[in-house]
Specification:
The chain is mainly alpha-helical. Helices cover 58% and strands 5% of the residues. The chain is built from 15 helices and five strands. It has helices spanning 32-53, 58-76, 83-86, 98-117, 125-136, 174-185, 194-208, 215-229, 241-246, 248-261, 264-300, 307-319, 325-332, 336-348, 367-374, and strands at 7-11, 16-20, 322-324, 353-355, 363-365. The protein has a three-stranded antiparallel β-sheet with strand order 3-5-4. Strands 1-2 form a two-stranded antiparallel ribbon. The chain starts with 6 loop residues before the first strand and ends with a helix.
Length: 375
Amino acid sequence: MDAFKAGLYINQGTHKSFEPEKINRQWQLNNMELIDLLSRADRQIGRLDMYSEYIPNIDLFISMHVLKEATQSSKIEGTKTEIEEALLDREDVIEEKRDDWEEVQNYIKALNSAIHNLEELPFSSRLIKLTHKQLLSGVRGEHKLPGEFRKSQNWIGGASLRDAVFVPPIHTSINELMSDLEKFAHSYEYYFPDLLKIALIHYQFETIHPFLDGNGRVGRLMITLYLVEKGILKKPVLYLSDFFERNRMLYYENLMNARLNNNIEQWFKFFLVGITETAKSSINTFDKILRLQKKTNEKLNSLGGRQSNGYKVIEQLYQKPLIDAAKIKDLTELSYPTVYKLIEELEGLQIIKETKGRGRGKQYIFDEYLEIFRS
């Protein structure tokens, strides 16, 4: 990696933009520390993938992983929606927080839609544009060309181009640079380990900054898409935004260090540590879920004739651990008196507890499950 050249600054008159070197070429890997970190990351992500295969009904739990990813990725951009607020319906969110809430909901929709689209589309500019369009639809960035690469200059940090921390390449370079990125993602001519490949793709995407808004969120979402498309993960169960949020300054510093000092190896090391820690954390999360599931099932077995309806409620709560009487009625097709009796029993078993509702009556939370994702 000693030969890495990030790019060069080009004088645009009032400012200098950064023109990155293309990445679809042969790479040499000769740093033993980096090779060791790559080996560790590969082992942990392999463990996570194998682990996820043996979890019954894993799709029930993925929605909460996506919800946490959405709140953490949006938090990096300054959105302040907590995971409990993200569970609420729009009308239950206080008015001054609705814009943030909507951005988190769009992230969830965009990620779910992108994973679905992978069944028909490869990891590509087309997929990235479709995902970006969903991400910005109807929210604060909706006037910033959703689903289209920018046609003007943007910048990072500072109030204007003159005092910007970083100015990405001019818009006329974007199509060529993104085409190069896409070729690199699918290249069989130049071998490069997949975890380093997506690390480099993420760096390059954030350097190109091809959209007027939403680049950070799309760039982080791309990591999971790549891992799923390449078959490294069979299910979308690994998300790095929590790691990036907890190490936000290092995240930005390592990206800038690569651009300014050609030090891509430090970015790779940071990224691989993130993969390793996040994979371990995800396995730990699934362990906790399985233990909770076993404990909860034992409690539900005491419900007698109402056991089957109890299981219907709990399956819904694994997907979204907040519920009200109306939702339970829809799930179980019981009368309201019987629904409230079931709620009372689930409260008595300490599976759910009442939480503050806004406007439409009482709501109940599966707090022990939610706590797994808060930590």
